[in-house]
Amino acid sequence: MAGKTTIKDIAKSLGISPSTVSRALSNGPGVGGDLRKRIRKVASQLNYIPNSSAKSLRTRKTKTIGLIVSDIRNPFFLEFMGGVEAVLFPREFKFIVCNTGEDSKKEEIYIRWLMEHGVEGILSSPYQDREGSNNGAFYKKAMKSGIHVVFYDRLLEGVGGIDSVTLDNEQAIMNGVFYLRERGHERIALCLHKRGIYTIEERYSGFKKACAILGIHPDDRWVLEDMTDYSVSLDKLRSVLTASDRPTAVISTNQYLNETVVRAARELGLDIPADLSLVGFDDSSLNELIDPPVTTIRQPVVDMGKIAATLLLGRIDGDRGEQTRIVLKAELLERNSVASTAKIVKRL
Description:
Structural class: alpha/beta
Number of helices: 13
Mean pLDDT: 91
Strand order of the largest sheet: 2-1-3-4-5-11
Largest sheet: 6 strands, parallel
């Protein structure tokens, strides 16, 4: 039989009505056990593949979720997807990944596209620039059209009524600063990804709070902002780490920057941790393979994915409760990238 097999083809082969075939294949009522087995056997022989689009039109349920990520290269999002998939797969939900690349216009286009494609929900790590501009209006529009939205990792200013699961970013960085101070460090630098983004602003706030509590006064030159481009980030690190009054320790704020700091130190001939201590953020397996293994602030990323997906499915299933905001705690994993003393050997 040429072309794609249809329900009509199966019905014609058996001499029965298409509606009977449809009920048998969808476990509907009114079809005897023997006939149901015959129909399924013929469907298998004819390589019949159900048309999910047609089913969606009938039921108005696509069982599809839109997953908006800000940077698909970041290992954080791969781990997060693992948590999401663990919850969605048993419920026979699928998800479409949309990578915005920290581009507000691209995010807007993806939201519109997901709405047009009839997704039942959206999981999003939303973008916001330094001036507070964001796509909150489009998320609200999606909600009004019946599409449920859950934010993960980030929140948006002025956008309420949306469930979320985030990390206590302030406390996570504060713990990193406290850990370094306990080991004698006061000259601490901070590497920040793109300013304006919720997580980065929260981490910067935690750094400032911890320094204030401890009476540390970091040099403004040691707060390195908008480290998104590799070559630019290296230049900024070179400038700080080759100065005569350079910091003795660095706190990174994502996996990409963990690796960038290590590369900069090696290029400059600085030994970690003898010359420069490092506390990283996120916990890719690379952090254990780097020599020495990097002390990091670990987010419960898989749990975040599971919780976000569970919240979204709850809304899809009809949960009409109040807005849910869940804040998770980070864990500091001690390895070998931090010296126990602030006496740094000058090797430049």
